[in-house]
Write a structure and sequence with these properties.
about 0% strand, about 80 residues, about 50% helix, mainly alpha, 4 helices
Length: about 80
């Protein structure tokens, strides 16, 4: 897989759409829909799989939605909006 940092990154909203609609659309369909490389969608899904469900929303770190224009921070930000960290 190529370096995701060298490619166009998804937005937090696009990651949320992937979370909500996973299983209804393929990687290729998400890539076409968001005008992103297939590899970027695959990397996004890989990071989404690493998220853990928070048992208590207060357990989510305050800095979870701090974005530094890295794919991991964007996915983490989208995840915190839905109870993951």
């Amino acid at each position: 897989m190529t370096d995701p940092a060298a490619k166009k990154l998804p937005t937090v909203e696009q990651v949320e759409e992937i979370m909500k609609n996973w299983g209804e659309f393929s990687v290729e369909e998400f890539a076409d829909r968001f005008k992103l490389d297939k590899e970027m969608i695959e990397a996004t899904i890989e990071y989404l799989r690493k998220l853990k469900r928070a048992s208590d929303e207060s357990s989510i770190p305050v800095m979870a939605c701090y974005r530094n224009d890295r794919l991991e921070s964007i996915v983490r930000c989208a995840g915190t909006r839905h109870g993951y960290w």
